[in-house]
Each structure stands twice: as C-alpha cells, then as structure tokens.
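Continuing the batch. This is chain 6 of the set; chains 1 through 5 are on the previous pages. Same settings as before, nothing changed between runs. Recording input and output for traceability.
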Amino acid sequence: MAKKKKYYVVWEGNNPGVYDSWNDCKLQIQGYPNAKYKSFTSLDEATAAFRGSFSDHIGQGSTAAGKKKKVVSEEARKAIVWDSISVDAACSGNPGVMEYQGVHTKDSSQIFHKKFSLGTNNIGEFLAIVHALALFKQQGINTPIYTDSKIAMGWVKKKKANTKLVRNAKTALLHQLIDRAEVWLRNNTYENKIMKWDTDNWGEIPADFGRK
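Output for chain 6:
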C-alpha cells in the first residue's frame, strides 16, 4: 500500500514555507537552531497552517514535524529536568535509513546528529545514548539524558546491543560504531542519569523526528 502524500510547513527555518517532500523540508531545518516545522496530509491544510502560528499545532518544547499539540500541565512540567539533553532516533523502514540526534531538552536546539544508510531504530536509540555519555565524559559534566526507549536503556545497562542487523558492506560502519559503543560502556563509568521520558504526560520527547 502506497504511503499517503504529506506536506511540510516550516515556520522557522532557512526558508520558511510549505514543502511537498521531506527532503525539501529537511534542507530548510538542517543547521537552523530550534527550527519549527510540522507535516500535514493535505496542501490546503498545510497552507492554512502556514498562515497561522507554530504554537497552534505543536506542544511546547517540540520542534518535530507531524505532532499534534500536547497540552502539558504545570504540575507535569515541574517533573521534567530541564537542565538535560534528550536523544531519539528515526528509521525509514526496519531496517532502513536511520538517524539519531541529541538536543537540549529546554529548547530542542541540536547538539549532535548522525545518519546511516541502513540501520534500525533500536540501534539508533542505543548509539544516541552512548554518544551523549561519551561526549559528556569528555567534557567532564554529568548532565542527565532523557530517552523514550526502554530497549535502548536496557542495552546500555547490559553494555550490549542485542541487535540482529546483518553484517555486510552496507552495515559495516554502523557495526563498527556498535562494537565501539559496547567497548566504551565496558571500559568507562559515568555519573549521568539516563532517564525515561514520560511521553504520556509530557508529549513527544524534544529530540523526536516527528515521523510517527
């Protein structure tokens, strides 16, 4: 079954506007701090949304496309550790093109981003956490890390990525990074708390790519 056509509104980006492909939208948000964008299922809906405000369609703290506004109560917001970073991954297929990123939880500004031609979402979630841990170890800081993946948290705790992704020429680099991440976990300690993002009460994690 063919995927439904999507249209993307960029309120804040390199060139704000309405785009009819994810690749075109991505060009407008890459490298732009705290870009604001969202996907819609019709051109009319996207055009009308562009005339309005980003805040009418996205919950506070999220810059990801395709998310309905999540009203977060003041009580729920108090539970969030804002002085932290959030990590997430996205995968087009399973396996498929995979990318992960880490952002500041408070304003969704990007800290790091990696993309691979073939991978899985769980691998991306795992590598994102380890990437953050290694970065903070290098910087000597104990900033907490939010993730919405219980599987990735389990892999990090066990210091082993339980993936069945085939090893071949296309996945060679990714497997090298997985092996390196496992070695790093075995050889390093860290004080950073790895915390589960409460999606039900807080909406999508700030690092979400918005493709669900």
